[in-house]
Design brief:
It is built from 25 helices and 26 strands. By secondary structure, it is of the alpha+beta class. The protein folds into five domains: 150 residues, D-Maltodextrin-Binding Protein, domain 2, CATH 3.40.190; 121 residues, 3-Layer(aba) Sandwich (D-Maltodextrin-Binding Protein, domain 2), CATH 3.40.190.10; 108 residues, PAS domain (Beta-Lactamase, 2-Layer Sandwich); 76 residues, Helix Hairpins (Orthogonal Bundle); 164 residues, 2-Layer Sandwich (Heat Shock Protein 90), CATH 3.30.565.10. Strands 1, 2, 3, 4, 5, 13 and 14 form a seven-stranded mixed β-sheet that branches. It has a five-stranded mixed β-sheet with strand order 9-8-10-7-11. Strand 15 and strand 16 form a beta hairpin. The longest helix has 45 residues. The protein is rod-shaped. The chain binds adenosine-5'-diphosphate.
Length: 728
Amino acid sequence: MYLKVISLLFLLFSSFLSCTKIQAANETPFVKIGVLSHRGNEKTLKIWNPTANYLIAKLPQYDFEIVPLKFDQVESAVKDATVDFILVNSGIYVNLEAKYNVTRLATMINLRNDTPYSIFGGVIFTRSDREDIQTLEDTKGKSFMAVDETSLGGFQMAWRELNAKDIDPYSDFSRLEFGGIHDDVVMSVINKKIDVGTVRTDILERMSYAGTIDLKQIKIINPQYHQKFSLMHSTRLYPEWPFSQLPHVDPQLARQVAVALFQMPKDDPALLAGKYAGWSIPLDYHEVHALFKELKLPPYASLAQLTIIEAIKLYWYWVIASMIALLGLLSLTSLVVKRNRELKYRQSRLERQHQLINESVADGIYGVDLVGNCTFINKATVEMTGWTVEDLIGNNQHKILHHTHEDGTPHLRTDCPVYQSSFDNQPRFVADDIFWKKDGTYINVEYSCTPLRGIRGETRGSVVVFRDITARKQAQKHAQEHQSQLAHVGRLSTLGEMASGIAHELNQPLTAISTNARACIRLLESDIHNAESCADVMEKIASQAERAGGVIQHIRHFAHKELPNIKPAKISNMMTVVLDLVEREIKNKKIILKLDLDKDVPWVMAQDIQIEQVILNLVRNAIESLESMPKSKRKLIISTKKIPNNRLEVRVTDTGRGLKKVIREQLFEPFMTTKENGMGLGLSISQGIIEAHGDQIKVETPIAHSGVSFYFSLLQSSAEEVEKMKYA
Ligand code: ADP
């Protein structure tokens, strides 16, 4: 039931609404023209209603209405679109254009002293008797009066010209006043109340025409001349008031209004009432824009007027972000600067250290590039070689230091280890070489050459670090000589010790010779001339003499002071020499001798006499040790055995009393002996000899029996060396 009533009411309301719509559609639409009203609504309507009437007559389908707007009402009328067209001064227009897209349709042609002008300007003036004011610059420090702060012709146009001369009306004048009415400004200047004034163009001419002033009393400052503008003016010229449409207006209506305005006849009452001469096509208003921009006035004032605090409030996030970025940048920069300073400091410290090391190191150091030229040298190089920095840097090191071997044969550049290291990128160590000095002599050197690599690993040359080993070589030579001397003395002393044995050795054949000689004499003296028997005896004599000669030969050979010379030597020969010298002793002391030589290795590299001396020392020590043993336990084994690395082990083993504890640790030290008449030199000399042969004497205590086993090794001779030796 209720539902039915509601739907009925709804139907009634809808039919009422549609009736109203039909009625409105039948009415003539209103077109509102807002007009800036200076002088009150009544006066404005009186001036502009005839123009509205003209438009109604031209476009009867519309009802045009004038809406007077006070200065502060203009913006809201446009913003709220309560008017359709608007007629305001050029200054207000550019603001509306910038803010609300208002578009000009026509520019008013004004009547100035009965002459039509669609442009106007400002005039700056003083009294003609003011000699001190000739140019705009002269107005500085003077009192100045304009019409209104917002008046385009009555202030802003003059301000733009002053601004171009860097004169700020607000700070550079002694006084800035606004008269409100153009005529008051003129009269204030004439009456000497003010020094300089500015008004819109045509005011002065109009007042003069009315007899209010005499133009002779006036002097125009910064006068301008324009072909199509005869009125006095001091500023650039700007277009008159535009008639504009709001964006919501139908373009067709706007076009019709513009055409109607352009076609307004010269005698139309609208012109008379509005005191204007008609409408022209819209002029260019960019000069007005430029003025507002230059003076930073609305609509271009917002940024200029923004205080720092306002800007911070508005863009605080940007400010904070910029500050953070700036702080970050600053801390980064300071960090970089700090690091840079540290790096520089470290670099210079490193350079100093490097230089110090280079200068203080005792070894010679020099750098070589890929072609073998010296790139740097240190102080020690100069001191050791005598060559100066100038001699070496940039010159070939091989030609200077390395050209000839010690024996005088040329040292080929291709064999030069320094050059080779740069070439094959391999480090090298040379233990024994020579560098030629500037004075023509040479030094013995050992050196290393290390390839110098660039950042990408490429070889850029090499660094040579060398040491003068001349003194060491000399010492080695002396030591060798000394060693040889010692060995010689050792041998003589051994022979001395063995003198009785040797004498006995010689005595035997000599006794045999003498006995046989006597037997031979007896044979010859007897009647029995038995030549055969005689020859036999003589034979024996000869053989005994040979034996004695052999022993003497061995003694001479053993006592001989040889030159150090390692060459192939037959191990069996050396054994024979030794055994010849101790044969009798072994026999007398009932020692069982076992000689076990490795047949595969008959030749070794040795200085034979010295090795014989070593074996003899070891054998005699063994014999002496065996003396204290019961006769049944006296056994001496001399053996050789092939061992790895192409060497032959020589071993002397006895079943004697073994090593005494006190001597074990210092066995090879000179003068260490446990014997009453011992010298303690045998083992120390022997050790020196074996070291010179590239090994050391070692001791073992065989587990199977008491006693000691001394052994050392010698390098085997190659077949070629043996051959060479045989044919030498
Ligand atoms: P010396 O024979 O004049 O004492 P060595 O240098 O030849 O000098 O020997 C030093 C010492 O080493 C000997 O005094 C001895 O005590 C010990 N020695 C050497 N060879 C043997 C050995 N085969 N058995 C036991 N002791 C030995």
